Structure formats: structure tokens, C-alpha cells
UniProtKB/TrEMBL annotation:
It comes from Jiangella alba. This is Cupin domain protein. It comes from the Bacteria.
């Protein structure tokens, strides 16, 4: 990857990553698979492609902080407390800053974007 003036010049085909993660989820006994495509240690932003097979879920868990979910493939339900929202491919959801769960109504792939630390100021 090269950068000019802080702009990365690497392109990643999300459709290919989605296909790869669905195949990995189908091969996994858990029925899910994930791959971080950006971020990790030393980064403020983390983006992870997560595949869940129909009927599988991420049980209720703490909010990772400020986060969004974009559905790339399939249909999912995001639930927090007594509220829930269903989303399909192309939809974008803001993850509430509270305990929540995610369930796949059909084989699905989502892009999870999380701010892992307070935003840095840029001079």
C-alpha cells in the first residue's frame, strides 16, 4: 500500500471478502467468521467483515463504543433492550451504546465499523 498526503491507494473488493467470509462461516461449526480489514492496534478506527449463517447470532454483548453496521449480504436483526431493527443488504445501522445482539435471518455478511479510541485532532 502506498500513501500520498495521507490517502491510501489500496482498494479492497468487499464483495470478494464477503464471499470469503460466508464460505468460512459455512465451514465453521460456529456458523460465523470474521476478518478485520482495517485497524487494530495503533488505529482509532477498526473495520471488520463478519459473516453469520441463517439462524446464528452474536448473543447480547457490551457495545464496543461508537459503532455502525452496514449490511453487505442478507438480512439481520439488531436488538438492544426492548427495541430491534431489521436491516437488509445496503442498509446502514447505528449500533446503540448499550448491550445488544445481532441475529442473521438469512446467511448474512456485515461490515462493522468501530471507533476504538477517542478521535485524534489533526493539526
Amino acid at each position: 500500500m502506498t500513501a500520498e498526503h495521507g490517502v491510501a491507494s489500496t482498494t479492497l473488493a468487499l464483495a470478494g471478502v464477503a464471499d470469503e467470509q460466508l464460505a468460512a462461516a459455512r465451514a465453521a461449526t460456529s456458523g460465523r467468521s470474521a476478518r478485520t480489514i482495517h485497524g487494530g492496534h495503533g488505529h482509532v478506527l477498526r473495520q471488520t467483515v463478519l459473516a453469520l449463517l441463517a439462524g446464528r447470532a452474536l448473543d447480547e454483548h457490551e457495545s464496543p463504543g461508537e459503532a455502525t453496521l452496514q449490511v453487505l449480504v442478507g438480512r439481520v436483526r439488531l436488538a438492544a433492550g426492548d427495541r430491534s431493527a431489521e436491516a437488509s443488504a445496503g442498509d446502514h445501522l447505528i449500533i446503540p451504546p448499550e448491550r445488544h445482539s445481532l441475529a442473521a435471518a438469512e446467511d448474512s455478511v456485515v461490515l462493522l465499523t468501530v471507533v476504538t479510541a477517542p478521535a485524534r485532532t489533526v493539526p
